[in-house]
Amino acid sequence: MGLVLGLILGSLLGIAILWVYLYFQKKKNLLVQKTAEEIIKEAEKKAKEILDKAETEANFRLQQAELKVKEQILSHKQKLEEEFNKRLQEVILKEERIASKEEYLSKKESDLFKREEQLLKREEGLEKKLREIEEFKKSLEEQKHEIERLYHQAREELEKIAGLSEKEAKEILLKRVEEELTEEKAKLIMKIENEIKEEVKRKTQELLSYSVAKAAIPFVTEKTVSTVQLPNEEMKGRIIGREGRNIRTFETLTGVDLLIDDTPEVVVLSCVDPLRREIARIALERLIADGRIHPTRIEEVVRQVEEEMEQHLVEVGEKACFELGIYGLHPELVKMLGKLKYRTSYSQNVLQHSIETAIICGALAGELGIDVKKAKRAALLHDIGKAASYELEGPHALIGAEIARKYGEDEEIVNAIASHHEDVPINSLLGIILQIADAISGARPGARRELLEAYIKRIKELESIAYSFEGVEKAFAIQAGREIRVIVDDKKITDEQAYVLAREIAQKIEKEVTYPGIIRVTVIRETRVIEYAK
Asked: What is the mean pLDDT of residues 425-451?
């Protein structure tokens, strides 16, 4: 009983505990559900805030991106406008150039028409001269018939004269005919020469004055020594070095003789090659300034100066090409042009002479309708052989032609270079105007000097040529050998024969004497009659 009651109470207690547990569990679940709902609501609220913030930030970034894109578009638009304006300016410049070229071409066309008219007039003049020559031939034919008639008449008369043979009569008659023909020939030469000289003189003066006016380049004195100033006399001993090792090293590396004498604070560099002498001068001045003078330092400085000189030669050559508007030369040719700066001919700097010749040659080519660029190129390179004349044997014109051919120059330019001293025949008009330009540059006043011995020899040659002709009494070479005046015996030389004599003397000078420019031959004949009143 008690056990049953205990079981019942125990069961009731268990049920009560279970009901309490379930009640609290349900309450807990309700509390958890309520908490979860609050958390969800809070999360939804935060999510909404985050979304709103994200949307705001996205809108802000979108606005920034739009502004950035607009800025890029504006910048690109400005660049396009600048490019458009630049292209527009280029088009305007090109239009102006085309307009100037059209104006230049129209001017050229007008000049060509004028030249054509001049040529037509000249052609008419030549035709007139040809007609005169034909008339002169006819007159010669008539004179020939007259001479034949006179000959037969004289022969008949001479046969009647006692003491004269037929042979003697022929000699007298032939002598008379020869005198008459000589007189007629001299008169014709005088007439034609005077007409041609006036026309040629006018044209050549106009053309040469235009060409020479474009070139006015000074000359330098030719020399084989250079002097270097020393800070004190002690420096001479340092240059010589112990047992002369410094000076021996310097002379071996540079190929230059270093002369040290009693002249205070000066040493002399002697060498035929001016390029080596210049390298030695710069190297010695640097050694003196540095103060360290010993074989190793000498070798280092000389090598450094040689490298700098190589670059300097290229720069000098490029500058010369730039001044003349010549492009596309082989680098070796450009370098050899730089070497010409340190070469002289009759005291005229060879590079300056080449530039001057190129300017004159270009001007002549432009007037004669020849390719100006090719003419300048040939003239600039015409003495290029002198840059290698120390290494190679032969005339500098032929050496220069071979060098130009080696580095791909045009055959017409090669021939012009080779023929500018007539070592080979000239095969183009370019070679002729190059000769003329070279002579103008070398013969203009102040361009060159020559040695006293060569000058005296040339003067004597000119005078001896004049004395070799019969009838010459005196001959004087004047104006530094550019003119020779010949005084003749008026009893042996007539006025007509004086013209023939002047031509013959000029032709002999051309064959036997080498000279720059031209030599004027003046023949003077006068008759003086003196009487005294007593």
From this structure: 72
